[in-house]
Design goal:
Elements: H1 6-14, H2 21-24, E1 32-42, H3 49-52, E2 65-74, E3 84-97, E4 101-113, E5 116-122, E6 150-160, E7 167-180, E8 184-198, E9 205-217, E10 220-227, E11 230-234, H4 239-247, E12 273-285, E13 289-299, E14 313-321, E15 327-337, E16 372-373, E17 376-377, E18 384-385, E19 403-405, E20 408-419, E21 422-435, E22 440-456, E23 459-468, E24 476-486
Antiparallel strand pairs: 1-2, 1-24, 2-3, 3-4, 4-5, 5-6, 6-7, 7-8, 8-9, 8-10, 9-12, 10-11, 12-13, 13-14, 14-15, 15-20, 16-17, 18-19, 20-21, 21-22, 22-23, 23-24
Protein name: Capsule assembly Wzi family protein
Pfam family, one: Caps_assemb_Wzi
């Protein structure tokens, strides 16, 4: 790689790292900096599942390799009474070895006015009610892929709408850019969410509920398609199309609406690829512990409306020990089921529209990449493109980016603990992988992770050993070794 590369200069400019966002967030006026270096090794030539998953696209599939990361971050002024405050961040990653790449995995600015935030750029985040530290990943937006650049207005934290704090809300409204994929270039992301909390801050019990809505829309086709004798080269990107996207309005006709650059969709369908989750949560906070029970229910078409796929979703339980400094600090149990998909029978013209089966999660007939960004799944890492299912023959599909395994049952347990000044994260996941309705498979998979983190002066050392049993993934043992310096 030439040192004159703009992205290489961006690494030097960023000047800093951070293994996690939380570690680098220093409330106050001054920016924080960090740099990190490390290596990845494995017995199968690929990084194991729990080394590369939910790492915001920074860790490549193949190993061995070396990584260099740099980050700077300025958080909002900690004075809560200030009406205006600003922040920014930048993070650059250089990977060399089996995979050579330079990534700007974060670069953004944000402005706060009271409870509202306006932001622009590429920024780490998750969406959905879940444990944010040990979850296997929110179903729809897990932090598994490189962040998508977008502009956004939001209420980033729960903000009371009654003086006594009985009801509080948070949410966002955003427009993003996917860029170019396998089938379409210059297509967009529409994203919005709204979550409600019921319960005063002093109450032991609090109830949560809400939804998020994601849409892939617009774009120019790389390979024009012909519908009923009409050549389609571009999907709707005008104002009318956008309003259909935001409102998730169906075109209530069985006739095919064929237009270039304007609102268009198959009869009875919607403009763009719509998906998301409806979430519920219950929190109990005692004197020494905090419990959080959450459920994410999946929608991609009308299956959830008709309750056909109600069995599908992410169910989780999180237990935290408040003020604990030794022993087990947090425990998370999760169960993911995506096998129903509304059943094996699709709705069809002239048939029973309530069937709504064969949802084929994360795949789409127009946006062939499906619910991925830069080749990686945006949602739960248990649903992955063919290229990441390293234990399967790669000739099962012509397109290695196609998601062929989206009917999954997975159980995960994760524990964060501390002994002396050393932190441990232990994780076990067991999954049954059934492929999809068009290509049934039966593969069991067990994956393990053991991470050790400790600090020495201004340095933080992070070591992870991970194991995949043979099955959906190759049998594999891998190690990551990372060292970070903060300034």
């Amino acid at each position: 790689m030439k040192t004159s590369s703009p992205l290489f200069r961006a690494i030097v400019f960023c000047g800093v790292l951070g293994q996690s966002v939380v570690q680098a967030q220093h409330p106050g006026k001054k920016p924080a900096y960090s740099v990190e270096a490390g290596a990845f090794l494995s017995t199968a030539g690929t990084n194991p599942f729990w080394i590369r998953s939910n790492e915001y696209g920074e860790i490549p599939l193949k190993s061995p390799g070396f990584t260099l990361r740099a980050q700077m971050r300025k958080e909002y002024d900690s004075v809560a009474t200030k009406k205006f405050s600003y922040g920014y961040g930048a993070r650059a990653v250089l990977n060399v070895g089996s995979t050579n790449q330079v990534l700007l995995s974060e670069i953004y600015g944000k402005l706060r006015y009271r409870a509202f935030e306006l932001s622009a750029g590429r920024r780490r985040e998750i969406q959905g009610l879940a444990d944010t530290t040990l979850s296997s990943g929110s179903y729809i937006w897990s932090g598994n892929a490189l962040p998508i650049p977008k502009v956004e207005i939001s209420l980033p934290t729960y903000t009371r709408i009654l003086k006594n704090g009985l009801i509080a809300v948070k949410g966002n409204f955003a427009h993003g850019w996917f860029g170019t994929g396998d089938s379409i270039r210059n297509y967009f992301l529409h994203q919005k969410s709204l979550y409600l909390r019921i319960g005063k801050p002093t109450w032991r019990f609090k109830f949560y509920g809400g939804f998020n809505h994601q849409v892939q829309w617009g774009g120019t086709l790389l390979y024009p398609r012909i519908d009923r004798g009409v050549t389609i080269t571009k999907y709707g990107s005008d104002l009318e199309s956008y309003l259909y996207v935001v409102g998730a309005k169906s075109l209530y006709t069985q006739d095919l609406v064929i237009q270039n650059g304007k609102a268009s969709a198959e009869g009875g369908n919607r403009v763009g690829n719509h998906l998301g989750t409806f979430d519920l949560g219950l929190e109990y906070e005692g004197n020494t512990t905090k419990w959080f029970l959450y459920r994410q229910s999946i929608y991609e078409d009308g299956s959830l409306y008709h309750l056909n796929n109600i069995a599908d979703g992410l169910l989780g339980l999180s237990l935290s020990r408040k003020q604990a400094t030794r022993g087990v600090l947090r425990l998370v149990l999760e169960y993911l089921n995506t096998t129903s998909q509304g059943g094996p029978y699709p709705s069809s013209i002239g048939g029973d529209d309530r069937l709504r089966g064969r949802d084929d999660y994360f795949n789409n007939g127009r946006y062939i990449d499906g619910w991925t960004y830069k080749g990686q799944t945006i949602g739960t890492p248990f649903i992955m493109p063919l290229r990441y299912t390293t234990g399967l023959p790669q000739n099962l599909a012509l397109n290695p980016n196609l998601i062929i395994n989206n009917r999954v049952k997975a159980f995960m347990v994760a524990v964060k603990s501390r002994i002396s000044n050393v932190d441990f994260v232990t994780r076990l996941s067991v999954s049954e992988n059934l492929g999809n309705y068009d290509l049934p498979l039966t593969f069991h998979q067990t994956s393990l992770q053991q991470s050790v983190v400790f600090a020495y002066h201004q340095y933080t050392f992070h070591t992870t050993v991970a194991y995949d049993s043979g099955g959906l993934l190759k049998q594999n043992v891998g190690v990551s070794l990372l060292a970070k310096r903060s300034f």
